[in-house]
Structures are given as C-alpha cells and as structure tokens.
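Notes taken during the Thursday session

The instructor put the following on the board and asked us to keep it in front of us for the whole hour. The protein is Tn3 family transposase. We were told not to look anything up and to reason only from what is written here. First, the residues (886 in total):
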Amino acid sequence: MNPVAVFHTAADYLRAHRWEVPTYAMLAGLVTEAFRVVEQQLTTQLSGLLTPNLRQQLDALFTTEEQAPAHSHRPYRLTTLKRSLELMRPAAIRANIQDYTVLHALFTHVHPVVQALDLSEELVRYYARYVERAQVFQVQQQADKKYLMVLCFVVYQFYQLGDLLTETLLQAVQTHRNAAQRETQERVYRQQQDSAGNLRQVLDGVVAHGAALVELEHVAFSFARTNAEKVAALLAWLQTPDVAAFAQLRQTAQQLRKGGGGSPTGPYYQVVEERSRALQRRLGEILRLVAYEGRPDSPLAQALTQYRNRAGNPGSQPLATFLKAAERTALQEADSPVSLYKALLAGHVADHLKAGKLNLVHSLSYRPFETYLLDAATWAAQREELLFHTNLTDLRAPGPFLDALQTKLATAFARTFERLNAGTNPAVRQRADGRPRFLTPARPAEEDAPPTRPLFPEPGLISLHEVLHTVNQQCRFTECLEHWSPRHRPPRPAERVFFAGVMAYGCNLGLTRMAHATKHVAQSTLENTVNWYFSLENLRRANDAVVALTGKLPVSRLFQRAPGQTHTSSDGQKYYVAVDSIHATYSYKYFGQDKGLVSYGFLDDRHRLFYSTTFTSATREAPYMIDGLLHNDVVESTIHSTDTHGFTEVNFAVTYLIQVAFAPRIQSFQDQQLYAFAGMAVPDLAAYALRLGKPLDRSLIEAQWETILRLIVSLKQKHVTASTVLKRLNSYSQHHPLYLALRELGRAVRTEFLLRYMDDQDLRKRIDDQLDKLESTHQFARAVFYGQNGQFRYAGKEEQQIADACKRLVQNVIVCWNCLYLNEQLFQARPVERQALADAIARMSPVSWQHINLQGEFDFSDEALTDALRFDLGALLSVEWEAAEG
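Then, after some discussion, the predicted structure tokens were revealed:
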C-alpha cells in the first residue's frame, strides 16, 4: 500500500533483468494508475456485496448517539470506537469491553464481505490506520471508498481490541498470582508468629492425652480388675478436667489448619478466593465475551463454553475436570466456591493461551501457530522459487545440511580438546578442582589512552537543531516521513516542524511542551504533522537513511575490529513508565514498586543503532532478537552477540538457518551441557568437569524439516515478525514438535559455538568489545531522553514505540554528525598526519555528545525583553472593591 515502495521495487526489478527503465513520469504514472484501478475494482465489487442493512449499520457510525451535531462531549460513533484504552484500570477495561461488544456485532456482518473481497492483512491495516488518524468528515467525504475504509477499520479494530483484552487477561492473572503468593508468604509468617502459643498448647495437650491413654491401656488390659471396675475407671477419667481441656483443643487445631498449618500450600487458595472479586471486576466480561477456542475434547474449553452459556455464572456444579487435584480439594473446602472457581478458571485460561492450547482465531497475536506461516498451498506450489529468492537453496534437503553440521561439530570437539589436552591453548588455567578457567585478554592500555588533542568541539557548542539540519542536508531523512495518504496529500510542513516533532519525542519533552518552547512552530501544526507523518514505518526508514549515510563515510570503517565482517549486538535498557499502561509491568529488581518497559536496541560495530523496539519488562528479550536482524534494510549482520538474556537454543537454530553466526556472552558457560549426534566420537569430558547430554536426534529434525523451512522463509520474506511467531512457539514449550526440532538443532549449533568460544580467546574478546560498545550507548540514550525525568509518559504501545524510534533517530543523527566531523578533519589533515589521526580516531568512539547542546538555550539579551509586560505597581496597589451584599 506504499506507491513509493512499489515504484522503487519496479525500478530495481527492471534494472536487475536488464530491461529498459522508462522515465520517472511514465513509471510513476503507471504505479499511480495501478493503485487507482485496484481501489476502483474494490469499491465496485464492494457496492455489489453491501446489503441495505449493512450499509445502514456502517452509515450509523457517522452519526452521534443523539440526533444532534457532534462535538467533544457528543462524538461520532466512529470516534468512540477509536479510543482503545491501553490501561489496566477497571473503568478502562469496561470501556474496551463495550467497544468490543459493538465491534463484534458489526464484525459478524462485515467479515463475510472482507473474505469475499479477499483483502490482504496489509491492505486492511492501511485503511484502518488511515481511519484512526483522520477526522470523521475526512473519511465521510470520500464517497467512493468510505465503506471500504470503515469496513477495514471494523475488522482491524476488532482484532486489536481482542488482543488488547487478551493482554489484559494475561497481565491481570499474573498480577493476581504475584499478589496472592506475596500475601500468602506474609500471612504464613504472621501465622507462625501468632500461632506459636496455640501450637504449643495443642502439642502439650496431645502429650498429656497420650500419657493418659497409656494409663487407660494399663487399666484396660489389667487382670487385677473386673470389667465393672474398668468401666468405672474409664467413666471417672472422662469426667476429669484434662478431657474437657483436650476437647477444646479441637477448635484450636481447626484454626491452625484453616490458617494453612495442615495444608501443603498454606493459605494460598484462601488468599486466591479472597482476592477473586478484584480479579473478576477486570476479567469477568472478558472470559464471557471473547471467544477463545481450543480442542473440542479439552476439559478447559468445555468449562469455558459452559461459563459463557451460563452468562458467567458457573452454578453449583461447574465443570472442574481441568483443575489440579489440590485445586479441586481447595474448591471443596472453600467458603465461597464460586469465587475461587472463577479465579482458577481465569488462571488456567491464561496458562492455556500462553501454551497455545487456547487461541483467538480473529487476532493478530494469539492465532493458531499454523496461521502465521506461509500458506501451505503457496509453499507447495512455490517451494523452489521461494528458497531461491530467500537464498536458502542449501537447505533444500535436510541430509546434506545435517551432515555438514555434524562434520563441523566433530571438528570443533577434536580441535578444542586436542589443544586442551596438549596445553597449547594459552588462555586456559587450571582451577583447584581441576576444571578449566578460560581467560579473556585485557584491552591494551594504548586503546584506552585519550587522544593527544581534542577531536570534537567544545562542550555545548553545537545545538541539536544544527545537528539535525546538517545531517538532513546530507541524507534527507525527513523525506522518509511521508504523509499517510500517498495521494491527495496536503502541502508539506516546513523542515523545522519535523525537527520539532523528532526532538519532542526523542528528547521526551512532549508535543505541548515543545510547542510552548519554540517560536516558529504552532502546537496545532506540530500535532497534525506528527499524526499524519510520524508512523513507525516512516521513522524506521528515516533511521535507515541516517544509518546508511554513516556507513558510507570512510571514517566509520575505522571502528570495525574485523574488516569483512559486520558484528552486531543487541541488549535491553529499562525505563520507568510514569502512567498507567498495560504495556508496562512491575519488576522489583529494576523498578521497585513502580512499572516499566524495555527498549531493546541493536548496534553494529560502526556504532550505528540500526533497530529498536519496546516491550514489557516481564517479557524475555530472546524472541525479539531475530527482528532486528531481519527487519532492517541497511545493516546485514554476519555475527551477532547478546548477553545471557538473549540466548535460547531456538535462537541458535534460527540464526544458523538465516546464515548469521550467533555469538552470545553466556554467563557460566562451562556449566552448559554439550551435545553430540549419535555415533559421533567425543573426547572424554570428565577430566574437565564438563557435561555431555543425551545424543541428538536427527530424525526429529528431519521429520519437521518442511515446517522449519516454511518458518524460515516466512521470516525472511517478512510475512510475519520473528517476535510474534517465536513468542507463540516458545510458549508451546515441549508440546510442539517444531519447537522440539528447533531445540535439537539449536543444541548442536550451540555446542559447536561453545567449543569455539573455549578455544578462541580472540572471539571472546571481540564479543566483549561489541557488547561494551552497546552498553556505552545506554548512557547516551539517557542523556538524549532527558525530559520528564527520563520516564515514558505514553500509555499506548504505538506512541511508546514512536518515542523510542525518535530517540534512536536523535542518537543516530548525533553519531552521523560526529562521523562527518571526524571525516572532515581527516580530509583537511596533511597527508603525513592522516595515518596518526586515523589511529587516534580508531581508538575512540563516535558515541560522544558532550559537545552537543541537547537542552536548548536561554535568551538573556535585551532584544528578548522588547515585548515584556510592564506593570504600574502604584495603580495596582490602589485597586479597591466592595463585597457584594446579600
């Protein structure tokens, strides 16, 4: 849906096939006409599919609840459906549920029409996002295609709201569990303190009662007494105060048991029951209205169907076969079984959604796994062509690929342990327990030495506006910020408006504060520009333009440690979120009692930040690692490093298949298990206290080979983002055969890497250096994102990502300006001085910002006070008034 992208693709295609390239006007005209024809065909086809009833329902979206003109307190029905509240407050959840109910009713009518039109997901998203940005009158006035736009909006918004309510459910359940576990621990601790006396009393009573029972046993089995005497002694004992006191201990024991003393889980389920109502206020309607689907024979799916059919009232005998034994026992003993049942049901629904046993069919993020891959029919018909275009022809058959991997693994085993046994690995020392200790060489002192003369201007000398302007003059990154509507676009705003928008988000100042702080940019103009031009895709293209310019500069090559390779790395940086947002979660380790998110950034060895994204702090970083490697159009990584948080065996497998060497820095890597294929000769690892896992199963990988290829082709063709599909795949854990096959393949790749990591100290040093480069950019990011105490103040996912993309754009622009400045110094230096200057530059980093004035300037000149207000203090002090009577 981007005519400019289609134009460039067509031109590239013509050049690649050595066909004649027409003039710009002719090719642009062809592309524009093609878009117009497709839209005309769709609107014509749609007019024949719209029934009078459906047309009336869509027209109703352009009216208000009352028969009166719209205003801020009486919005159009279409306006109210745009308001997805990405918050965890019960009121916001209720508003989302109301919108979901309205959209569901519309969706049941429009979905058959969308299927009949065979609209692609990209086309639906494009028109839907246009409706989100546009005013209602702007949509309504396009009489020829307004129904197509609104149709797509209903479908896309229904999908988005379903995902949002699902995220609400998952986060609410996790928060509920964390709170219940925390309160259980606190309650158990208090009970241990409070019940010590009661427990001692019960134990003393049991001991005394036991002693009395021993005496009664002697009486009962005594031959010196008659039966009548025995009965009399028993009756006399029953009348003693000790028996009455022991009877009272039953109540004390029951209190101890109710408090958790008699339960292996303590008072956990009691706490869950007590906190259930708060959970129900958030999730009751979600479970009742959102159609999660599972296998028909699934006990949970049946219980969920019963719950919906009974309008959220499970009744006295709800289906409980999906519950664990301990949960069923707790349900029988609960004071309010219905409350406990609802909490347990919500918890199991969340677990099954994560595990892929429940799915949301009409969804973007929670669909069945198979729907994310290329269509099976398309794959069967175009397999060879797809493998050729994605440069994966070497993976056509699993046999040769796995044979080569097995040979490579055997060579790594032999070389590493041959050098260990011979003592020829200079970076290995023996520990006291016999285990090897692998050393990484320190950085030479001359690399840390400061340059003999300053290479950058004085601190604060260059304004950020000047930096943005200078770099924009060289690469025109603002031209990448295109209007959402490629046709019928209004006059383009001035460059300063784009700079103001980038700084407002990138420096975390906010649009209002930025508009108030500048003289030549009106707030309405700034807000309108951001609305129509600042899409996430546009900002990523703007970043790509700056990154590409930096890569062209000769000076940037000085920062590469291994020419011919592109070494990249990724890491997450934590940020507080100062507003209520469903996309921010608690993390006591990083945020204490507050919420936050992760900005996950990618850096190459030339200090170019080529990709970033955001997600909740409770999400693991590993699924997002592949996104940055595949979803950028400038940096092609050959080796990629992360810390331990980015490492999984599935990531090892996927990166190996897309021909990127994955080289993470794994904490305590000596404790990782090594693996080998069955029948492979492996040296004795016992002498080095290393562990060998069970043999790898080639048949498991071969059985899933076609699905593995479909997955990799889907990722390389950007049919789906890696984070979306890998999060679903990882959540399936051991139950999904594709996960098991990728894990098996990843174990082989990881073992080969670990063996090289042990053997090659230079590899360890390069990994450390690249990760150090990335960690140095974290302080840089804090300096740039200084407004609002460095806290995100955006609740919506898209706005959080736009702010993150603008922050990255500011960082990339500063790095690019620094490289331009250093390149200028090299150009102006005398030939005899250039090598020494180049060596000095190579030892430093272009990630420097002390000379950039990020926070603007105060104007204390007399001219700035020309229009200052002046007050007549004498007149002001003489003002009198009388209080009104009555």
